[in-house]
Amino acid sequence: MMASSNKVDIKNWNSSGGNNNNNDSLTSPAKVKKFLPSVKALRNQFEAGKSNSRSETNGNINSNGNGTLSHRSSGSTSSLVSSSLEKTSSTNSLNSVSDSVENLLAPAFENLQQMEPEEPVEPIYNQFKKVDEELRELMSKPPSTTGWNPRPLLKRLYYIPEAPKIQSQGTTYINIEGFLEKLPSGRKKATFWNAWKRRYFVAKDGVLYYYQSTQTEKPSMKMPLMGGKVECMEPSMVGIDDGQSRDSKASAVLGIDDGKGHYVVVRCSSRQEAERWRRALETHTVEDFTSQYVQPWPMPTNPALLRDTLVIDLGSASVRAGVLASQATLPQVFLPSVVATERESRRQVWGFDALAPDVRAASTVSFPIRPSHKITKYSVDLSAVSSLLQKTFAELKVDPKNYHIQLSVPRVLNTNTQTELLRVLFDKFGVRSVNLTHQSILALYAYNATSGIVVDVGERMDIVPVIDGYIVDGGVSRVPYGGYRILDHLRQFLYMRNVSLINEVESYIIRQVLENICYCAHHYNTERARCTNNPDLYEKEVTLSEYFHTNDCPYQTISLDFGRFQATEGLFNPDAWGLDHPGLHKLVHKAIMECSMDIRKEMSRSIFLAGGVTQLPGLVDRLTTEIDNLTPPAIRPKVHASPYRYHAAYIGACVLAESPAFVQSRISREDWNKQGNAVLRKWSL
After folding, report:
1. Of 393, 359, 366, 370, which Cα lies nearest the Cα of 150?
2. What is the C-alpha to C-alpha distance for residues 546 and 556, in angstroms, rounded to an integer?
3. pTM for the model
4. Residue 634 dihedral angles phi and psi, to the nearest 5°
5. Model confidence over 397-456: pLDDT tens digits?
6. Where in this protein does the record put region Disordered (predicted)?
7. Three-state SS annotation for 235-299
8. Contacts (Cβ under 8 Å, ≥6 apart) of 269
9. CA angle 270, 272, 276 (to 5 degrees)
10. Are 330 and 294 in contact (CB under 8 A)?
11. Dist. CA 258–CA 598, nearest whole Å
């Protein structure tokens, strides 16, 4: 049988292993040709006998001896399949693609979504060429914002919510342990060769372990129980299911899914013993979402709860900082990483004050942490970072000489940059010690996890697979496009609606539009067709008058329709942005495939989001659906989205700074003076 067009074959998934040469086996045109007939051949077949195919096709497409393409969409008709194939093959004319999309009904697209995950997307920039000359002449003299003070808007964009005063009590687990009889993994019946084995089981804090004996230190199995389902099929039989498989065999037996698609079966000594284990395991399967991520605490007022460590997160667009407490907190300082450098005195002003009208008039505004023609992807502007750190210490009202520093950076820095950064911190500020960590790694700590796929989308996209604290280098993807590229395309959509926002200060207005009315479409062409048929339902506006204290507000309101979802589509279809790198879901799938076969299922269910762009409505569902289309039917990916993922790197830095790993990895001033650059071996960015 042929592989489904919207799901890959489980054999291809397992056989690829860790071989780097087979990473693209699921998407390579050469590989697809071995299984699927060409789209052109299918189109010719349907054009020749379209009327016959309507009555004969029922969710399957037969090709001349090449096999059957089976689709899960039961409600789809052959005419829709035929039109979709014609649309897919007509790549020479983007206009014909858009015309065919607009003529289809909205419900049909919901079925075609899973059938055609690789549906072509028209580049968005083609629409920008249609701006007529009258609009260009009108926009040649846009309203001026020279005298506008953006502080009220910045206060809204850089607002730090209060952490809940009443913390979640979490789940009360009934921990249980004891000897049980176990079958080999994957076996459900005992045979002469696969007999019961006596093993020691421990259910503790939502995880089930088993050991070869009570003296064994390392468990032979570690299985998360949260989210599973415990049921008693008979008085003496209990089973636990993670939602993918179920066992209903054997008396006085617990069927426990180990998260790898098969059961680990254990047998209790009696029905009463099975009931006792069932009740205990039920407390571990309750899905408490607050336990899946670190929930920040309010900033303590008692000085005894504060530590001698400062947590600083240097981002391309913003800076977060605070004094470490006994529990992870939200940042105390949150400001834009923008600097205004005076043209004559070269004095630098950071944060909100840098965008004041009088300061902007005599200065040059820039973002020194953001990569530019002066800054490579492996370095930063150290003179600007030094000034920014000084601003941060002043905002925190602390003397850096009395503190250790946990520093978070957005990019991998080369050795020279790390050396110069240490020299600034030790020689200029005199800090006691420093630890440097990448933002994506810290985001993993914000989810109480040590293994998983970190999807960090801010000014750029970073996809980092981590297994037990170690990065899988082959699966790391760092794409220099993200939120800033969305703002660029959103600027063009606003320009087409007579709104001209050009300079860096006005970009914060665009960001306000992005955060309030933009979203990720579940299926782009479906959303576009619906918006074409009824644009009034999609049009939404943002009010700006409250951020202007004068009567000369250039734009009272800003409205969008198509641009609400078209500007963000490049995250999943970079073709829409005119780029050729893989989409976000394909980068995540690549990270999963780089992991060993035995943990791919676990990694696909451990996808953790971080960064401001991941807060876009619809992104979690879209990412889950797209990854589900790339994985085998037995694999159901799970995307974890903490409500505090905007500050995930800072929260994770707080967790790391409070752990013993911080003491082991930090570089002290004494070590720096003795060993110099050699101490950098402690760090792995």
Report:
1. 359
2. 9
3. 0.70
4. -75, -15
5. 999 999 999 999 887 888 888 888 999 999 999 999 999 998 888 999 999 888 999 999
6. 1-32, 47-96
7. CCEEEEECCCCCCCCCCCEEEEECCCCCEEEEECCCHHHHHHHHHHHHHHHCCCHHHCCCCCECC
8. 252
9. 120
10. no
11. 12
Residue 685: CB atoms within 10 Å: 16
Check if the beta carbon of residue 323 is closer than 8 Å to that of residue 332. yes
Q: How far is CA 601 from CA 256, 598, 609, 634, in A?
A: 16, 7, 18, 9
Going by C-alpha positions, the residue among 316, 390, 376 that lies closest to residue 348 is 390
**Strand (E) positions, 525-578?**
540-543, 557-560
Residue-wise pLDDT tens digits, 376-410: 667 777 888 888 999 999 999 999 999 999 999 88
Amino acid identity of 43?
A: R
Lowest mean pLDDT, pick from 176-180, 251-255, 510-514: 251-255
Residue 56 has which token pair? Answer: 């004969």
* pLDDT tens column, 479-528: 888 898 999 999 888 888 888 888 888 899 999 999 999 999 999 888 99
Inter-CA distances, 530 with 103, 333, 523, 561, 565, Å: 10, 43, 11, 11, 12
The reported pLDDT for the residue numbered 295 is 87
Q: Side chain identity at 609, as an amino acid letter?
A: L
CB 287 within 8 A of CB 242: no
Using DSSP's 3-state secondary structure scheme, residue 566 falls into helix
CA distance 494 to 507: 11
In the chain, what percentage of residues exceed pLDDT 70? Answer: 69
Tally: H helices and E strands in the chain: 26, 27
- DSSP character for 652? H
Pairing of strands 461-467, 477-479: antiparallel
- Token pair for residue 150? 């953006």
**How confident is the model at residue 683, as a pLDDT?**
76
Are the C-beta atoms of 541 and 557 separated by less than 8 Å?
A: yes
**Distance (Å, whole) CA 97 – CA 563:** 19
> What contacts 33, CB < 8 A, 6 or more positions away?
none
Say if residues 234 and 240 touch (Cβ distance below 8 Å): no
Task: Judge contact between 222 and 207, C-beta under 8 A.
Answer: yes
Name the helix (H) or strand (E) containing 158: none
Rounded to whole angstroms, the Cα distance separating 22 from 593 reads: 9
Pick the closest to residue 574 from 461, 422, 494 (CA basis): 461
Q: Residue 275's CB: how many other CB atoms inside 10 A?
A: 16
β strands within 607-670, DSSP E: 607-610, 639-640, 667-668
Q: What is the DSSP string of 598-612?
A: GGHHHHHT-EEEESG
Reduce the DSSP state of residue 575 to 3 states and report it: helix
Q: For 34-43, b where at least 16 C-beta lie within 10 A, e where not — what string?
A: eebbeeeebb
* Signed CA dihedral, 90, 96, 98, 100: sign only: negative
CA-based torsion, 324, 329, 333, 337: positive or negative: positive
Instruction: Please tell me which residue, 354 or 248, carries the higher pLDDT value.
Output: 354
Task: Report which secondary-structure segment, H or E, holds 161.
Answer: none
Are 602 and 259 in contact by the 8 Å Cβ rule? The answer is yes
| CB of 568 closer than 8 Å to CB of 616 | yes
Measured between alpha carbons, how far is 581 from 595 in angstroms, rounded to an integer? 21
